[in-house]
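YM 10:42: UDP-N-acetylmuramoyl-L-alanyl-D-glutamate--2,6-diaminopimelate ligase sequence, as discussed on the call
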Amino acid sequence: MELKELIHPLEMLEVIGNTDVEISGIQSDSRKVEEGFLFVAVRGTTVDGHAYIQSAIDKGAAAIVCEEIPAYSDENIQASEGKPVLIRVKDSADALGKLLSAWYENPSDNLILVGVTGTNGKTTIATLLYEMFRKMGHKVGLLSTVCNYIDGEAIPTDHTTPDPVTLHSLMARMVEAGCEYAFMEVSSHSIDQKRISGLSFNGGIFTNLTRDHLDYHKTVENYLKAKKKFFDDLPASAFALTNADDKAGLVMLQNTAAKKLTYSLRTLADFKGKILESHFEGTEMLVNGREVMTRFVGRFNAYNLLAVYGAAVSLGKDPEEVLVVLSDLHSVSGRFQTIQSPSGYTAIVDYAHTPDALTNVLNSIHEVLDGNGRVITVVGCGGNRDKGKRPIMAKEAAKLSDQLILTSDNPRFEEPDEIIKDMVAGLNAADMERTLCITDRTQAIKTATMLAKKGDVILVAGKGHEDYQEVKGVKHHFDDREQLKEIFKS
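YM 10:58: structure's back
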């Protein structure tokens, strides 16, 4: 594609050189630049792409998009294959998304794209919408924490929202595969870092907002602003669906031009739900006056199902058909995943890794148990993440558990014992009497199964779908579900 055509969507502050040049690819990683590429120098959280402009030139970059024009010496210019075209913009991260969208012929314009944001529930809602629309006969794409899908083709993922180059490439492949819809998790990081720039959304869903990612955002207010920006940027042709029961829910709608819609279990809303009966096999609900039996457990899942229902109806689907399909959907991998033991107790694996998510899961367990059976919780906290939530996680777990086992999660580059110490700081003497600290996660899970009796529930929280433990930069295979199943066999 010619550079002058490619840069048409950008607000350019300065252009040095002739834009009548062919571009053979776009990259923001100088290591991946090839002859004739356009290199976009993006300021990251740890690395500034402007420091690698010369490296990109040396590899044959035909053009550079940046926020600051570099000072070239004659020696540098001669060392390269010729002086590249220089384009200065106000925000190169924003420019990258727009350039990639143009490069791939604006794939999101050819999809009905819905983004899901919030602290908890993103994966469940996006995945269930993907499953629902496939059951309705559509070709659908999914971008999620667990896995990306192009209709039925699974593509492994490392981030909640992929980097812009991967993201736009996946969108283009979805269009090529004939997908009509795409549902994606939109993380606060991706909004703040403008990784979703250049995408055209037809709808946005807000789940809830509780403490998370403060290692990055520093304050809850900054975290909220990142989420809110997603809705502020939605066009008038889109819908904005929010949880009216969350204190941040209506804040998300304050400045959006999109059609404002709400869902709720407690107040008047466009999509109103009520839990009629709950047990470990599922939940019977009233949704906009219609009864539906679902295979999901807990109040937090009732909210997720309302969001799915509301989004599907907002996309023009018949409410009755939506309820029929809703009743046939299954839980998402690692989200309140129930495994029955031969001894008569229940084990639940859940991704809950924030205080609020952990509280929601434990409350859901208590709602079903109704005092008949004990709750044994196995939980840890990830290393090199928000340390402030560690004592809160432990306190919430202790408050709602009969027995608590603190263990290792993904310690990353921290010492697991030090992370557990941070968690213990949130416990009082009475809590400690019901708490064990077992660093080895395998042993922690085994101990929980040894303590469990018929009718009890073991919650193994924090890792959910993950099949690894990250220690000192290395991912070792580890799956909570596999661990439990092996123990049940023995």
